[in-house]
């Protein structure tokens, strides 16, 4: 069942992801109008409307802010930490393999923060969780790239644990808990992008693991002056990512993978 849900979710998102769907609707509407079909104005308006809304209005910021503001870091930070769990999503496996050096994407702060926390808490274990999200398995995993990167950055291998079978956030939680077997009373930090933290916390709680959120990779703030600071293509990607998280929260709740529709502190 997990395999079926994984493939279904990948196929579903490839069809309904907003930027692609809006483009398809706009092209379809234009083609219909070109052939004299007046009802083509509706898909054309819907498709172009998405791009116009993101360009003119702070759509990306308004979609992202509730996600990024949901969980804050503990203040003050804990004095002792048994371990740090770093979720995958920041490394590029295929590009790493093609170029021979670890490649990171826009979520790179997940990896840099792991190194900073390893230095802040010298006794803590650093656990990276991430396999491959490809429908057809067999290629390099995110853990492979993380292993190379952390070695290059000087983290002692005896402090590192790599979980390389998970394909999504739910499997991150379940398989990592099984791999490290956290003891009652231990403090573990969860490092992931701030907009991804609500769904991640819901998954770890549902898996029976009470971790402390340690969000990184913020993309917006409450200051309206920052809502239009990114170029239009970046805001399109931001809005799409935020919508993906909202859809993921609903889907995970329906599947029983989170403890709440919108997990809270």
From TrEMBL:
Asked if the Swiss-Prot or TrEMBL record annotates the protein with the keyword Membrane, the reply is yes
The record ties this protein, via Pfam families, to: DUF218
Matches recorded under InterPro entries:
Cell_Envelope_Assoc (IPR051599), DUF218 (IPR003848), Rossmann-like_a/b/a_fold (IPR014729)
Record carries keyword Signal: no
Q: Name one GO cellular component term.
A: plasma membrane
Q: What highest taxon heads this organism's lineage?
A: Bacteria
Any idea which UniProt keywords this protein has?
Membrane, Transmembrane, Transmembrane helix
**An annotated GO BP:** Gram-negative-bacterium-type cell wall biogenesis
Residue ranges occupied by any DUF218 domain in the UniProt entry: 84-248
**Which residue spans traverse the membrane?**
20-36, 48-67
This chain belongs to the protein called YdcF family protein
């Amino acid at each position: 069942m997990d395999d079926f849900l994984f493939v279904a979710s990948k196929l579903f998102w490839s069809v309904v992801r907003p930027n692609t769907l809006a483009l398809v609707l706009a092209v379809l509407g234009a083609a219909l109008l070109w052939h004299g079909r007046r009802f083509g104005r509706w898909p054309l308006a819907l498709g172009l409307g998405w791009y116009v809304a993101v360009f003119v209005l702070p759509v990306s910021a308004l979609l992202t802010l509730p996600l990024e503001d949901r969980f804050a870091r503990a203040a003050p930070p804990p004095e002792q930490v048994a371990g740090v769990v770093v979720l995958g999503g920041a490394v590029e496996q295929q590009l790493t393999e093609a170029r021979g050096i670890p490649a990171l994407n826009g979520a790179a702060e997940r990896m840099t923060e792991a190194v900073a926390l390893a230095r802040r808490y010298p006794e803590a274990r650093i656990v990276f969780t991430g396999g491959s999200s490809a429908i057809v398995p067999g290629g390099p995993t995110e853990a492979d790239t993380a292993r190379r990167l952390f070695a290059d950055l000087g983290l002692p291998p005896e402090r590192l644990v790599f979980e390389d079978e998970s394909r999504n956030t739910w499997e991150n939680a379940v398989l990592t808990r099984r791999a490290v077997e956290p003891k009652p009373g231990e403090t573990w930090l969860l490092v992931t992008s701030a907009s991804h933290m609500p769904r991640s916390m819901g998954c770890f709680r549902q898996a029976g693991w009470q971790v402390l959120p340690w969000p990184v990779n913020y993309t917006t703030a409450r200051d309206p002056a920052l809502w239009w600071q990114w170029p239009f293509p970046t805001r399109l990607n931001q809005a799409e990512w935020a919508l993906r998280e909202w859809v993921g929260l609903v889907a995970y709740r329906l599947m029983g993978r989170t403890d709440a529709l919108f997990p809270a502190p």
